[in-house]
TrEMBL record:
It comes from Rubroshorea leprosula. GO terms for cellular component: membrane. This is Sugar phosphate transporter domain-containing protein. It is found in: Membrane. Residues 67-259 form the Sugar phosphate transporter domain. Pfam families: TPT.
Length: 294
């Protein structure tokens, strides 16, 4: 309503009425004048739309990061509960279930035409294959680390991912981080370390897995962010393309990192529901993390 009043008051201005009352014999000038009028109206009402777009650009990443943080905290405790309390001693197979459920959910979205299509980008099959390969090791080793270590030690290892990302981006892309960001990252890392220092239980094998997990986790985030930002991939479209590759490599990891006996596990309603809930959180974590990186 307010916008209609502003348009009406704009149209009844004296200079505007002169344009609208030009004679037909002056058609050329009248046409140019109308073009000027249309440009004036557009410029007058454009700032509000720009402000709205600016707010979306600010609040979009903030919302994605907040949601990603909440889901990340939830899935760590959920996975630890599944691995320890329920007794599901198969961390890589748990990761496989996560990606399988994610792929099924995306297939449902695609059937309803709700899944964004792949962009006409320069992504090669090799780049998608590499990302899927790195993702399988990143998430698979993360759950193996969570099985053999406490949540506190897992979080301490996770802290090391951020400086690894900074170092890798500097080596590959000569990308520098401002001093203010370094201070912010240091404060956050110290805060997490202080909060989890009382729960540092780990085994030698778990510590080795945690160290091995840091590098693929950092590389995964760098590759994902680079493909989204430079090649215009949406989060879901890139997940849809890379998930089958990730599933393939997870299957190859199961015999080496999981104990035998997954089929003999007690797949009752309670245990299966907990595993599926963990898988849904895994989908939300991957999606929100991709949005935050993009």
């Amino acid at each position: 309503m307010l916008c209609s009043r502003e348009i009406f008051s704009f149209l009844i201005r004296k200079d505007v009425r002169k344009i609208l009352k030009r004679k037909d014999s002056d058609a050329g000038q009248r046409g140019r004048a109308l073009e000027d009028l249309r440009a004036s109206i557009f410029n007058k009402f454009r700032p509000s739309e720009s402000a709205k777009t600016q707010q979306q650009r600010i609040w979009g990443p903030v919302s994605a990061l907040t949601f990603n943080f909440m889901v990340a905290v939830g899935i760590i405790f959920m996975n630890k509960w599944v691995l320890k309390n329920i007794g599901f001693q198969f961390p890589v197979f748990l990761t496989f279930i996560h990606y399988l459920v994610s792929w099924a959910l995306m297939a449902v979205l695609k059937s309803f035409s709700l899944l964004p299509s792949s962009p006409p980008s320069k992504s090669t099959p090799l780049s998608l294959f590499t990302l899927g390969f790195v993702m399988s090791f990143s998430t698979g080793l993360a759950n193996v680390s969570l099985k053999y270590n406490s949540v506190g030690f897992y979080q301490m290892a996770k802290i090391a991912v951020t400086p690894s990302i900074v170092l890798a981006e500097f080596i590959w892309y000569r990308k520098r981080v401002s001093f203010s960001k370094v201070i912010a990252l240091t404060v956050v890392s110290i805060g997490i370390a202080v909060a989890t220092v009382t729960d540092l239980q780990f085994s030698l094998f778990g510590a080795c897995v945690a160290l091995a997990w840091i590098i693929p986790s950092a590389v995964n985030k760098i590759l994902w962010s680079n493909m989204q930002q430079k090649e215009n991939w949406t989060a879901l479209a890139l997940m849809w393309k890379t998930t089958p590759i990730t599933l393939l490599f997870l299957v190859s990891m199961i015999p080496f990192l999981d104990p035998p006996g997954v089929l003999a596990f007690n797949w009752n309603l309670s245990n299966t529901s907990a595993i599926l809930m963990s898988a849904i959180l895994g989908f939300l974590l991957q999606w929100s993390g991709a949005l935050a990186l993009g």
